[in-house]
Batch of 3 targets.
Target 1
Amino acid sequence: MLKRCFILLIAIASVNVCLAQEVIVVKRKLDENINEVFDVLKSNNAIRNGKYTAYYKKKTIFATGSFDNDKRVGLWQFYDLKGNITQTYNYTSKKIYYEAPELESSPLRYFVDRELNPGDTITKPLRVGGRYYGFLPYLDLFTLPSGYQELDGKIGAMVELLVSPGGRLADYKVHLIVPGAPQAFRIINMNINLPNPDDLVFVPAKLNGEPVSCRISIRCGITSGGHLEFLQ
């Protein structure tokens, strides 16, 4: 009997080895500041399968997790620009397990179009991926319009996102700003028909437990390539 069980265990192990697919490691730039390192199938390098790590400026961990057949699975952790964890999210159970408190130094601010009364409780909108990695799709959409390149290094930007009570991205604007000026000298309306529908989804803000619309502002710099980047 023991011999049969031993043979059966060897057979199961052999099947698992056969089912395991070979992977290779790929490195690429996600944008001017973010580099990705991840596994892809050796038989099809368009399919991510295995470990994933993103780095900010090549050295600070920005995101970690795993893919299974090109889908994010299990626990992922997301970090700020200094390597501090901002969010832990489980893609399998679709649950946020941890969201770090918003610091005064954060480049993000939140505004609801409601008059607040003493005793009101309000929660901010949440984005899967946290306050940095999760907002990259919006920053990466922007390129400085022609005619403004001569102002490179002399202007900044403020991203404005409107999140509906239903948790959907409803509007996206970029305000171009001269440092020290009281207001934007140009406001650019961005297209919200994003390639990935998941980038339209938020956990909405809530006022006394009821979903409300909320505007998110993000202070940004403009890179030498005319793209947006987070300010530290």
Note: The chain is about 10% helix and 45% strand.
Target 2
Amino acid sequence: MLERLLKPREFCEIVGISYGTFKRWVSQGRVSVVRTPSGRMRVPYSEVERILGGRPEAREVRAVVYARVSSSDQRSDLERQVQYLTQYCSAKGYRVVDVLTDIASGLKTDRRGLLKLFNYVVSRQVDVVVVTYRDRLTLFGFEYLEYFFKQYGVRIEVIYGDEPKDAHRELVEDLIEIATSFAGRLYGLRSHKKKRFLEEFKKLLEEVEKGESS
């Protein structure tokens, strides 16, 4: 079987060194490389095993913690999320690269913390993203984000399976935000039809909440 050959950047990511260090190691003869017919440099995978003592899985795992709440009056919950997540990473032996937080709806795609997380992922500076619940990262389309991150070798770890009971109120608020957006498109921003639609929609949600509590 032919040995797998790694691009220099791939080798650096697995071993956990910078490209500058890699070039220095090559010049010093600490890393063996081969040249492709086109002259490109490649590193045999056996070099990874040699440098990491035959245990590439022992490489340090870089983690980014991400926590989110919808409103500023939930700051205590945000702090609890961060505490749980950092303790989890410590127990797993992960090195926390950054702790990112957002106070915004899970529907917003321009969250500052989320955009910074994307930058970490595409620049391959993280191995795992840790969240408490799936909806902390995004209310809809979690599977799309999971697939996107995976293309950069990043996995998402959700440490709690079930959503908290107090998340119900937040979900209702997000549903109202969605309904407001669609109503604006259907009836116009100032239309009396939009206002009546939203009033009826909110009334329906209240009836559903009453039915669940009875």
Note: The longest strand covers residues 95-103.
Target 3
Amino acid sequence: MTRAGQGCPSIPGGAVAEDDEATVDRGVPADEPFPLLIAVTSSPAERIRLAERLDGIAPLLLVADLDELRRLIAAPQQVAATASEPAPAALVIDSARSSARCGSREIDLTRLEHDLLTCLISEPVHVWTYAELHRSVWGDEGRERKADVQSLVKRLRRKLHDLGTGATIDVVRGVGLRMTDHQQARVERA
């Protein structure tokens, strides 16, 4: 493994990566530290290239700038400071009724809202590209109608806010969308 700051000759911008011959021990217990690759680049094309190139090596965190990285690192400290508050109720997506509930509140979802929300919580920490979301929700192969996804996300954000859940949909600039604060979210199927 190269040292941070030295850079990696095969990855421009000084990103840190493991050597090709190195393997990651997949059998590490959950309580032991695990490798995490962090790449900082403002270029959307470079983030996508890094994600494709480093896929499967180790968990990868891609950020646009150091401010975004600081916000992500600071979040656990803020959660620990408010640990005395009661934990928010889990977000539950009810596929049979096409609804979402959090605690005693419940909202109806359209088919598109349901499918988008299910995609976003199905793979934790995954950043979904607009093309992937369009393919999964609308079933359109090869189309990337960003406006469709953005409009749907705007409606879903409003509904999630009205529901009172801590789950939010964040934009990863230049890449796509991801669900945050979704640790307890689950989908109930009929």
Note: Residues 146-163 form the longest helix (18 residues).
